[in-house]
Design goal:
Catalyzes the reversible epimerization of cellobiose to 4-O-beta-D-glucopyranosyl-D-mannose (Glc-Man). This protein is mainly alpha-helical and 391 residues long. The chain has twelve helices and 16 strands. Strands 1-2-3 form a three-stranded antiparallel sheet. Strands 10-13-14 form a three-stranded antiparallel sheet.
């Protein structure tokens, strides 16, 4: 049974792996485990990594109720609160040294969104009012300093003067706005609204749903555009397979949390098209390709893309039960993950990326790093358990 398998994996594999990375001397969690499983205890500590760890352990506690998971969450929370939050200018830094000094003071909307996402879940788990107050402060920073009438701006210096968005731009372009940041602000606000039910957050979620439908989704290609100029004009022919299947289920989830029929009716046809397009275009060899940049397909298998594909196809099957091919795809990708993506070496977790033959790529990317975290694969497990589809 799929549910039993992922439950065993998250409890016996992912959770203990990350718990052992607690830095009990300097706070937080160690920032790097290389391909050869060497822990670099002096590596910088990414704030995105710590937010995702906080989210992961908070949700593990909410799902399984074990106090040690809440303690691991609290350990991440204390680090974010004490070392990552800018008490003078607001928002969170990009990274710290291993001892907690500010290393990169960039303020990024994407990064701050993940802090809200994590703090909201931690509040739900711990009932600590301080956590939701901190989430609210970061929310107001984003709304007052990081957006315009068109969308969310991206990168700023310490005092929120705009800087080049090199951290969330790839493929040879520098984007002033991105689908990725918009998606994760939406994801964060969905969780923030779920635990607070504040009307102002609801209105921002509705505004973002309109933006996805009217400006990000390309109805001719049945995909999302990825990189934009300041006016939300697409600047690159790029199809990000992982983001599209992730968006499909996150938007459906957001619409469910909102409970507004108008937006379900507006967005669900789009999320169905996104799911179908990814199934037809990117699903190969029981796994998902990475992306297509200006007609050239990147066939690497990235850890987070596989995890999001499992949830996305399960979500697609739930919305359209006659599409049994989606259910089969979700099960087949899980089998691919078990066989290829989960690192069988002792004291390891998932490989970062594999080549088209299911072998770790030659560059041997890290097992833990600023972006390599327990958020995607842990969430995949939680979602499968939560959805309780009997397969």
């Amino acid at each position: 049974m799929l549910i039993e398998q992922v439950k065993e994996h998250v409890i016996s594999g992912i959770l203990p792996f990350w718990s052992k990375l607690r830095d009990n001397e300097n706070g937080g969690y160690y920032g790097l485990v290389d391909f050869n499983l060497n822990i670099d205890k002096t590596a910088p500590k990414g704030v995105i990594l710590h937010s995702r760890i906080l989210w992961f352990f908070a949700n593990a506690y909410l799902m399984f109720g074990k106090k040690e998971y809440l303690e691991d969450a609290r350990h991440a929370y204390e680090y974010i609160k004490n070392y990552c939050y800018d008490k003078v200018n607001g928002g969170v830094f990009w990274s710290t040294s291993y001892q907690g000094e500010v290393l990169d003071s960039t303020k990024h909307t994407y990064n701050m969104a993940f802090a809200i996402y994590a703090l909201s879940s931690y509040y739900d788990a711990s009932k600590e009012e301080e956590a939701i107050k901190l989430a609210d402060e970061i929310y107001h920073v984003i709304e007052e300093k990081c957006c315009d009438s068109v969308g969310y701006l991206e990168a700023f210096d310490l005092k929120f003067q705009p800087v080049e968005n090199d951290k969330l731009s790839e493929n040879g372009v520098i984007a002033e706005k991105t689908m990725n940041t918009l998606l994760h602000v939406f994801e964060a606000y969905t969780e923030f609204y779920r635990v607070t039910k504040r009307e102002e957050i609801k209105s921002r979620l509705e505004w973002m749903l309109d933006t996805f439908a009217d400006k990000v989704f390309n109805p001719e290609l049945n995909r999302q555009e990825v990189f934009f100029d300041k006016d939300m004009n697409s600047i690159l022919d790029l199809h990000s397979y992982g983001h599209d299947i992730e968006t499909a289920w996150l938007i459906d989830r957001g619409c469910e949390v909102l409970g507004e029929r108008k937006y379900i009716e507006k967005l669900q046809p789009i999320t169905k098209k996104l799911t179908q397009k990814i199934y037809e275009t990117a699903y190969h060899k029981n796994s998902l390709w990475n992306e297509c940049d200006r007609g050239e397909v990147d066939k690497k298998r990235i850890w987070w893309v596989q995890a999001e594909a499992v949830i996305g196809f399960l979500n697609g099957y739930e919305k359209e039960p006659q599409r049994t091919e989606y259910l089969n795809a979700a099960k087949n990708i899980w089998e691919y993950i078990k066989e290829n993506v989960i690192d069988k070496r002792k004291n390891s977790e998932w490989f970062y990326e594999l080549d088209n033959n299911g072998v770790p790529t030659e560059n041997q990317k890290e097992i833990v790093g600023p972006w390599k975290c327990p958020y995607h694969n842990g969430r995949m497990c939680f979602e499968i358990i939560r959805r309780n589809i009997d397969v």
